[in-house]
From TrEMBL:
Species of origin: Thyridium curvatum
Keyword Ligase among UniProt keywords: yes
Biological process according to GO: cyclic threonylcarbamoyladenosine biosynthetic process
Origin organism lineage: Eukaryota, Fungi, Dikarya, Ascomycota, Pezizomycotina
CDD domains for the chain: YgdL_like
Sequence ranges assigned to domain THIF-type NAD/FAD binding fold in this UniProt record: 102-361
Protein name in UniProt: THIF-type NAD/FAD binding fold domain-containing protein
Length: 508
């Protein structure tokens, strides 16, 4: 039967035509694929053959002083030789003053003198950091420490201040030194090819070789963990610092400004940095460069990482270093330059004592102190209610919450509004749920006894003071449940915010 079917199929005109078409299609597809492969190989071959051969009289096996395997050009060698002379003092100071004449007129001789003696550290030498460094060197700063572990890539060239195709593959810090020595040969560079982290802070941000402490630090890092570590170190050690926030997805240069870290913005890097710093007790006192530009229809957005990236393995293993970002951010090449020059401008004005007229941002420490006092008061009332036979139970009661914690909750989790009615005035922080167990933790006895409340960030909700009074009476000290007092939508909204707060407990 099967043989009869095959013989009929073989004699069928339709079957023969179909088979012929199938074979022809396979041949054509194979030819196309083969042609594409040959064309690709030819393009790669042409690219490789277009790379100039190294001259035999050059020692190409060793790194140059600029950190590359590409031999320096005659111009590079001339710039380097002139820089060595200039840094050794063999350079006419009148020529330097002539080059800096416009700055000297603007800043006055005494201001320029301060700038020329300044020691500035730039951490992060990509789009923002490279433009900032360039502006500082051109303006007269004579001591620059550049910190960055990364190399120039092809994608760097849309926003880097000085990098060229010849610099691709070389360390960013040495690329900057190489190019800027040709502009300001008297500048002393201290290059650190190192990824900044908290453990290395003291060494990387330490004094110059002669003991001079940094006059200013510029934070141009785009990784949250290292950014927070840098700003926390500078804050705690009273090192002047300015932090550049996210230039990604921004397009309006007129919206870039300087303000205190306490000023809220929609920028994700700014918001995440501010949140983490508050949990570490830093609520204000750090100037930042940020954009007030709002997102809108048709504008670039920071999209979530595609699902296929997650399927490749642990996300942390996809980056060049552990815990480093792996996404390619949408960045308009002009915007990092704007951020970098605004940061450099702030440093120059601050070092020289020139008046800073822009708004520095208003701290809200008084509000945070009031919120903290409110938490303390309500916890004492709950402690008395749980221990009615101990009149002194609330005396000396401590709460494990800081001003930074309440700032984080009020500003970043609850957006400065009541979670119940969205009213933004006369705010208070109070427990959301009645404690299911004794909320008092007692250690020691007598005069050495320490009493504290068992309280987490995710226990507290933001309300107006009037709402908090009712909540305390009816729920925390009364018999009503949350469902008795609030509708389902309000409860769901509050508990969603509390889960968000809980995720940040590990950063405290």
């Amino acid at each position: 039967m099967a043989q009869s079917f095959l013989s009929r199929a073989a004699s069928s005109t339709h079957a023969q035509f179909a088979a012929t078409a199938l074979v022809s299609g396979a041949v054509v597809a194979g030819a196309i694929i083969g042609y594409q492969q040959l064309a690709r190989e030819e393009r790669v071959s042409r690219l490789k053959s277009s790379i100039p051969a190294l001259e035999d009289d050059r020692n190409s096996a060793q790194l140059t002083s600029f950190g590359t395997l590409v031999p320096p050009t005659d111009e590079d060698q001339r710039d380097e030789a002139l820089a060595k002379r200039a840094q050794a003092g063999d350079y006419d100071d009148d020529l330097i003053l002539e080059q800096l004449a416009r700055n000297r007129v603007f800043l006055k001789p005494e201001g320029l003198d301060k700038l020329r003696k300044a020691f500035i550290i730039v951490v992060g030498c990509g789009g923002v950091g490279s433009h900032c460094t360039t502006a500082l060197a051109r303006s007269g700063v004579s001591r620059l420490r550049l910190i960055d572990f990364d190399q120039v890539s092809l994608s760097s060239l849309n926003r880097h201040a000085v990098a060229t195709l010849a610099d691709v593959g070389s360390p960013k810090v040495q690329c900057l030194q190489k190019r800027l020595l040709a502009v300001a040969p008297w500048v002393h560079f201290d290059m650190r090819i190192h990824k900044f982290d908290g453990a290395s802070a003291e060494g990387l941000l330490g004094p110059w070789s002669d003991g001079q402490k940094p006059d200013f630090v510029v934070d141009a890092i785009d990784n949250i963990d290292t950014k927070v570590a840098l700003l926390k170190y500078c804050h705690d050690n009273k090192v002047p610092v300015i932090s550049a926030m996210g230039a990604g997805t921004k397009s309006d240069p007129t919206k870039v400004t300087v303000g205190d870290i306490s000023v809220g913005t929609d920028d994700s890097l700014s918001r995440a940095t501010r949140r983490r710093l508050k949990l570490l007790g830093v609520t204000s006192g750090i100037p930042t460069v940020f954009s007030t530009e709002k997102t809108g229809e048709g504008k670039a957005e920071l999209l979530p990482l595609p699902e296929e990236q997650f399927q490749k393995g642990k996300i942390g293993e996809l980056g060049p270093l552990a815990d480093f970002r792996v996404r390619i951010l949408p960045v308009l090449g002009t915007m990092p330059a704007v951020f970098g020059y605004v940061a450099a401008n702030h440093v120059i004005l601050s070092v020289t004592g020139y008046p800073l007229d822009y708004a520095a941002g208003k701290g809200r420490e008084k509000l945070y102190d009031q919120l903290l006092a409110g938490v303390q008061s309500t916890e004492q009332k709950i402690a008395r209610a749980q221990n009615p036979d101990d009149p002194d139970v609330a005396v000396g009661l401590k709460v494990p919450i800081t001003a930074g914690d309440v700032a984080f909750l009020a500003e970043d989790i609850f957006q400065g509004r009541s979670a119940i009615t969205h009213i933004p005035t006369r705010l208070s922080l109070i427990r959301w749920s009645r404690p299911r167990e004794a909320m008092l933790l007692r250690l020691g006895e007598g005069a050495d006894e320490q009493k504290s409340a068992k309280l987490r960030l995710s226990d507290l909700v933001c309300m107006t003071k009037n709402e908090a009074v009712i909540h305390l009476k009816e729920v925390l000290l009364g018999s009503k449940s949350l469902e008795d007092l609030y509708d389902a939508e309000t409860i769901e909204r509050v508990e969603r915010r509390l889960k968000e707060a809980e995720a940040f407990e590990k950063y405290r």
